[in-house]
TrEMBL record:
The protein's name in its UniProt record: HTH cro/C1-type domain-containing protein
Phylogenetic placement of the source organism: Bacteria, Fusobacteriati, Fusobacteriota, Fusobacteriia, Fusobacteriales
InterPro entries, A to Z: Cro/C1-type_HTH, Lambda_DNA-bd_dom_sf
Taxonomic source organism: Fusobacterium ulcerans 12-1B
Location of the HTH cro/C1-type domain: 7-61
SUPFAM superfamilies: lambda repressor-like DNA-binding domains
Length: 168
């Protein structure tokens, strides 16, 4: 595919008029029209600006590569961006879950120190310390829930980091 075809195709894909592209490049609309019709070529600094505006490489613009290969390259770049965003999002979710779990466990532990328990149950069981606090105040299921949330979050973080290393 020739440069003039690529310029026109990229401009249309981005929903941009010749006038708008000309403004961004600091040239006249007629210059853009001549580039797109193949009557003239843009200067090298304008090619660099075009690559920045359309987020493609200058190699893509300048090299006469087969259309399928160009589309494949663009598709792969887009997939990498989506994967990076997804990985980043999943890591953040995992980190948040892990943090919530750790903070909740720390709060339970601090509460068990601030409000120590010492109780003998009817069957002679002595409830003291952290486990006594959880049982006496009937918050063991809540504690287990936060442990599970933290563990799942840690698993998500580790999985995303491992996946990131494998894909690089």
């Amino acid at each position: 595919m020739k440069l003039f075809v690529k310029i026109q195709q990229l401009r249309k894909q981005n929903g941009m008029s010749q006038e708008k592209l000309a403004q961004l490049l600091g040239v006249s609309r007629q210059s853009v029209s001549k580039w797109e019709s193949g009557q003239s070529l843009p200067e090298i600094d304008k090619i660099i600006q075009l690559s920045n505006i359309f987020e493609v490489t200058t190699d893509y613009l300048l090299k006469d590569v087969a259309e399928e290969k160009c589309i494949d390259i663009l598709r792969k770049e887009k997939e990498k961006d989506v994967l990076a965003h997804h990985t980043s999002f999943m890591f953040k979710v995992g980190f948040t879950m892990f943090s919530v779990g750790v903070v909740a466990i720390a709060v339970f532990w601090i509460l068990s120190i601030v409000y120590p328990t010492y109780r003998v149950m009817w069957d002679g069981t002595l409830l003291t310390g952290f486990s006594g606090f959880l049982i006496l105040h009937e918050v063991t299921p809540v504690f287990i829930f936060f442990c599970v949330v933290g563990t799942i979050g840690l698993g998500m973080m580790l999985f995303e980091k491992k996946k990131e290393k494998v894909s690089v």
